[in-house]
Records
---
Amino acid sequence: MSEGLEDVVAARTVLSDVDGVRGRLIIRGASLDALVEKSRYEDVLTLLLEDMIALPTALPEALGEARVRAFQQVESAADHLFILPPVDALRALLATLPDGDDADTALRLIAGTAVFTAAILRRRQGLSPIPPDPALGHAADILRMMTGITPEPDAAAALDRYLVTVADHGLNASTFTARVIASTGAGLLSATLGALGALKGPLHGGAPGPVLDMLDAIGTPSNAAGWIEDALGRGERLMGFGHRIYRVRDPRADSLKGALRLLRERKDGDGGRLPLAEAVEQAALAALRRYKPNRTLETNVEFYTAILLETLGFPREAFTCVFACGRIGGWIAHAREQSLTGRLIRPQSEYVGPRVDEAA
Ligand code: ACO
């Protein structure tokens, strides 16, 4: 038995390869480093979903139209849904969509995740949701639906890079959940709802909000080392560090740090939160080496996700929803791959409870 299924191979996939020793992420034969330089999120969706589902040839246009259709769902949604915490509101809104296993369901889910996230943020600020602009790219339209303003090209490019960076990542907890559900023959909506539930937890996609809480508590670079010593001394985990697979730095952290640097240079030139984040990162890595000498704990994707999404104007309570806007592509591709090539996933458990007293 392997607690947490560590090192257990539970699926064959052509979708992504997480090389935890060399710190490399490959998506269908392309390295993440190459993808973030040349591909939009829509291109990565095509790459992931090719051969998995009969996608329309003009995917950006079809996705734009799907966003328009998803907005109708927002207009008819009950008010009380928007009072829920954003990730729960997203789950509730997605649950109003029909289930299915076809390209239309896939587009509805990808579009709906983006449109609902923006609408939830607007409603929570007491503002009216803004209808999508189908002519914009997916990332630019998310920002526009959130703010009402067509974003600067570099802000749209930064969010696009984020969506590409998190689109797929092997058999992480939420993707595994999606595959388990798909293996029963349930549809893509069911797989997505389960995956979103798994993503929400702080050990997975719920970490970036607490990363910002940590930066707020530290306040200035000079406080970093002392604060981190105290936290580790109390036995706490540092959010944004450590990973089940990576034994070196998570390549996605550098992809996002690059996006952030470009954005910050244009915006105000003072680096924003970046100097504090870099001081905290250095202090955390040094302290983790001392506290956990037998475990390599490096920066993971969530650390720079937090700072990038904050810089783009997303409130921290919505970070998990924005993560879902990107990872939905991976969930759907894996769910389809499981349906096409896999079997029912049904592992065994070891019973350690009381035995029936046979003598009695
Ligand atoms: N801070 C302090 N100690 C840590 C951290 C951390 N961030 N991560 C792991 N450790 C320690 C554990 O306490 C444990 O120590 P012990 O052996 O003395 O008990 C040891 O390292 C191994 O930890 P596990 O929980 O067994 O490692 P696992 O592979 O299960 O955990 C995880 C991976 C959940 C990501 C973990 O590193 C963690 O909790 N990180 C903080 C939360 C976080 O950043 N989550 C986002 C992950 S990225 C993503 O999902 C998109």
---
Amino acid sequence: MAQRGSVLLKIHQVGSPALREPARALAPDDVRTPEIQALIAAMGDTMRDAPGVGLAAPQVGESLRLAVIEVREEYIRRLPPEEVAARGMTPVPFHVLINPVLVVDDAATDRFFEGCLSLAAFGASVPRARAVRVNALDARGEPVEVRAHAWYARILQHEIDHLAGTLYIDRMDSRSFASRENYDRYAGGRSSGRES
Ligand code: ZN
């Protein structure tokens, strides 16, 4: 739920040109401006309200190479433990990635059901590399390196794709595309809490 004083942004849905344009990079000095700091805070509020585990600036109509990520304990707690184990789900503290550059560390792929806040109520099986490394700027404009595997690596690949105008439907196994309702009904899964 939204906190008092939180700012909720409109999340663009598939078909919006904002989702298909490559986003522009931010200079470190830009990152520290009140405008970008306010955007980061509002994107965090919007992601938690959705709820989601990641949100990229193009999804809120800002063509900037900026994404926020957070996996809260409660997302994971409401999923079956065997699924949490199979997907390698772990909590991830809130963080910001600006101008991220992704390198694949383990090209072996895992296929899991994946959703997107910009394709509300749908999902599909999407192959993603098992381990990645990301170099970026953080919320203060300082360089950071993030190494991730399993589910966290999937979230990073999904968000950084958004910054290039790419959606999971460009990478999915197309015959697995399903409404979340039907995924839950026929594939025995729980689709909640996986959107980004
Ligand atoms: Zn998405």
---
Amino acid sequence: MHILSASQFDRSFLDNICQLTDSIRKYSKSKFGTKYLQSLCSDKRAMLYFTQASTRTFLSFKSACQILGIQSSDVRDTSTSSEVKGETIEDSLRVFSSYVDTVIMRTPTPGLCDRIANLLDQTPRPIPIINAGSGPDEHPTQALLDIYTLYRSFENEGGLANRIILMVGDLKRGRTIRSLSLLLSNYPNIKIIFSAPKEFQIDDDLRQKLSGQDFEETEDFESVLPVADAIYMTRVQDEYDSNGESKNIPIEKYYLKYEHLNVISPNCVIMHPLPRRHEIDHRIDNDPRAKYWRQVRNGMWVRVALLTKVLEVSENLLP
Ligand code: NCD
């Protein structure tokens, strides 16, 4: 099983991942449980192929590997690899895949993970590929940890259905936005509000993928704040600028300010995939509604759950 796009998951997979993650967190609370987790994949190896800037997702996966006893190796810089000798990326990854049981990839190139997964599927040794971020395109593992964070936050409040989720920032190039929006369509009666300056509004391809999903686009951030059950803030993705054009787009109006704590709902869930710039006032960090630190830790546990799925040991964890 590959993890390539948020659109590959259905509701039963999402429920299963949330349950599995809960179970893994329980195991991790005791020394015995921690040892058990470490034994599950101690015969497995993973390659972290991260050729686009990343420290948090890299470390999140690396820690997830450690929790399961997986030995990991990494490629972070292709300038020291045979790709500079003219080797195709397909050949390079086929070579790397021979040493390991799964390849976790973050690349600036949309579609590359799918290409490599298809290629390996036609070889005698088709190992799973995990997309850890593919350019502005998709970030399915982030979307799964976002879903898990929402699931946990609403667990005692009637669940994730019937919610209004407000997404803010660079919605055009934010891959976390794209992947999470696709996953949300698995839950009944969800409304997504996309709030951004028009230059950063979602693209047509996402609009099309969301046909059948209730969503709204607005430039009026302040007016939608009070109705949101969750607010998902994101930064400007200016690494994809062609000419520094983001600098001319006024984004300050879309920042979550300290004063906004008085207008948002008392149970609102505030999220951010991080890294943060100025989108969320630091004074909000200590408010119980701020869930972005918990989101980071959830990410590590959800990645443990995903690794047990792709390495086919997850049945050892559920009752
Ligand atoms: C996000 C990403 O890389 O897409 N970060 C992450 O994975 N934690 C969001 C971002 O970089 O803005």
---
Amino acid sequence: MSISRRQFIKAGGAALTMGVLPYGTLRIARAASQPRTREISLVAAPGKMSLDGRESFSAWLYNGQPGGPEIRITEGEVLRVKLTNELPKPTTIHWHGVPVPNAMDGVPGVTQKAVAPGASFIYEFKAQPAGSYIYHSHQGLQLDQGLAGSLIIEPRSDPNPPDREYTLLLEDWAATDGGGPNASRRRPPMGGMMGLGMMGRGMRGRGMMGRRGMRGSGPPLEPIYDGYTVGGRAYPGIKPLMVKKGDRVRLRLCNASAITVYDLMLAGHKLTITHADANPVNPIETEVLRIAPGERYDVEFIANNPGRWLLMANESGYGESGLKVPVLYEGVRPGEAAPPVFRRGLRFVRYWDLVRPEPKPLEKGKGQGRFYRQVLSGGMHSSFWTINGYVYPQAEVLAAPLGERVRLSYLNRSPMPHPMHLHGHFFRVANPNLPQELWISKDTVIVEHMERVDIEFVADNPGRWIHHCHNLYHMEAGMANLVEVKA
Ligand code: C2O
Ligand code: CU
């Protein structure tokens, strides 16, 4: 695999050279510069999932594979995916983070009609820019049933390739009672954060306990997550990540979980963040990495501490999550791996610590720009989650004239963090500590409790785009609206 990759990089270099040749070679040059198309087939169908020896439960999977097949493609190639729907329900695929043309974005009722059971649909778009992405169903709660995978767009040439690279697709599973959205419920709607007395008053009887929310007037409530996988496998049944002393190892962390925000630590090593949501950042070391649903981070570590170690996650705010992956040095006998210690006062990198490696001034945009305040609420006296008080689809449509600069200013007045995600665009995360040209680009940003976070982007991708919290249950309970980019 690494050989064919090297060959392809060589071919890419040749095409580049041909581009500057004189007219006589135009025919060849054109053929060479014609982007290669990669065809992939994804079949969404019911399947079985089992978490390392535990009773299996039903899941919906792509190509029968928990964690989905990983899609790898080189930047600039065309990705053509035939989705075949063998589910009993309509479905779609969303290419999370990739700024695809609107019609390829895979949001039912917004960018396409959902693909009916038995039908198929072809997605086709240019794979760019390079980076770590996720693909997942955007229909209802299907992501939570297992319909997700990783999409890696490799750069045409990597100036600084690591010695080893692993993709870690993180997923949370509700494995009891048949699994998925039908599993037993988490105490609504705030998990372990509050007593029942307060809940009782707040919920006014609507979908208060158990599953009533599914059928009653309220939105579906979160199930109880009791299983965690990396690439579809749960600890201890997961293969250790093998490293050799001296290796520089890259991990592509992609959080495809429905609701879980992880605080990740690797015992015996420090992680250096190099990319956030496919965009490069100035490499920065961190003891703990917080990653929310929809976020991706590329991190690296130097294998300079031979032994057996655990990469492990706490669930932000709840303690140990159960997400674990052993890291094993070559030549070290397999066995119990040392866990990291989540002691108090660990150093945490926040967005404000991340700096763009190459300064890039904000694009001016035409017109005088748009400013939208986005107040995030819910969780207290309602089982709905809202933006500016609206419950999607009865929600605002934010007008973003083509070419204008748009600022969304989030204020989170709810008790939970919200990973807010915008389709079709990367945005800059406004950082009061840095000059604008150093603000990083992302497509998903956590807004913590009582925090204000501003993002800015130029509306350069025409169409109606959904903008929502990537906690699947918050989205399904209304925390979404639309951004409409038109000339
Ligand atoms: Cu991961 Cu609306 O998307
Ligand atoms: Cu949310």
